[in-house]
Fold:
Amino acid sequence: MGALSDHIIGRLMDAGVRAIFGMPGGGGNLDLIEAAGRAGLPFVLTATETGGALAAIAQAEVTGRPGACLTTLGPGAASVANGVACALLDRAPIVVFTDSHASASAGAFEHQQLDQQALFHPITKWTGRLSPECAARTIDEALAALLDLPPGPVHVECPEDSGLGERDSGLEIRERLRPERGGGAKPGVAGPPSESSWGWGPTSTEKSKPAAVETLISRVRRPLLIVGLGARRPEDAAAIRAFLERRGVPAMVTYKAKGVVPDDHACFGGVFTNARIEESIVAASDLIIGVGLDPVELLPRPWKYDQPVVYVGRWRVADRHVPFAAQQVVDIPAGVSEMDACLQACEWDLDVVRAQVAKGRRAIDVRAEGMTAQQVVRIAAERLAHRTRVTVDAGAHMFPATMLWPVREPNQLLISNGLSTMGFALPAAIGAALADRDRPVVALTGDGGLLMCAAELLTAVREKLRIITIVFSDASLSLIEIKQQRRRYRPAGVGLGAVNWPALAESFGAAAFVAENESGLARAIEEAMMSAGPALIEAKIDRSNYARTLEAVRG
Structure:
């Protein structure tokens, strides 16, 4: 009989985990790292615990399988909380292992002592603690919760005396479940993923189809699809595209659903965030159908549309923000097929929709004396979008990035939307690049966001990853500065100061370039693409147009 740590690593690999990210401590996670090495599961050291969690999130989204990370106790557990919260609100399935003091010493020591289960309880779907008496059952419960819907994180606390490193300990460990086509889960045990991405969906007892959904769809002539993060599997995208093309119905996408309907698709209706820029298209519809639309993605603004809204997706969502008239919990291809059977002839003019999308893109193309974020996105996208994946950080550059960077497949653009955390783009690029080494990744980040995770450049160098980080360098927390301006406040606490980004990147061993204008940026991109490993481009930005850009997008 092997060690408990071997059993845990085997279960993770059966679930599809491709790597474990994080920063080790001196407790049980050393046993996990050792067992992972024996099994051939890579452990990737990140510069921060949060970076490890964000990399695990990105890998989960790219592979369609769970991600994993680990930390030490106390400060490590506290530090990873931002990444775990991101996984919760961005609906990403990751398992988080944290060390802890031995169970026998509980309450005896104050040093680095936190109630870690209480810390993680509000930001995970499940949290538990290993013990020799019930370790296998705890792992079963953790993976069952991990594979349940909606996707999200689970936390496993690993005390020093949990038996992770013991071999032939007498623990009764169930045989590993191995993926089989059409396999199911034993009662109380996490089942293997199916062949489809994520591999999870409602069972026949969970499926519900309120008559109201069928009734509403059958009465309308201008239905509008809004596709959200719950509809990103390849089979979801295929079913949605076929429906749109057959019916001539337009569809908008949320940030995380970009690529489900490609930007150049005849039925593409733009990006939906609950902001002003998309109002004209939404207002022209007589029914909104949220396919996989989770309100966690939308701006926290009152819902202003009067037409009915229905939901079709694999898990039930909250209806406090979006007033869903009915929800159909169903596997999305089946739900789309049922929707198609109910729908009458549609009256949309897709040429008018495309004209509105083009008008929106022109509206954010706000000029300035120097090089703008819009110009950086356009130039980079022209040269890189067709052969790379892109990750986008929170910040003012996010508006042109999400609207102007063309995406043709789900999860080709990765972004934190539910939590919208800064410092996401570079760690996410690491997770994505490790999942697919043949495909370069472009990380679009502001200088404020990059300062939060700049040491992850060393992680990218160490792993020899083809990542091009483009930092929109304007020496300010520009989005916060705009909000200060709107309140007629002085700019306080938003100036970052000068950073020599090329010198910093080169100190880690990355290639580095500076671009002050469009031609310089084009040259820098070509040189960066020739680099065998990671490269950084500092794009010096004129931020004077950010306020007008924000006004055009959000009002």
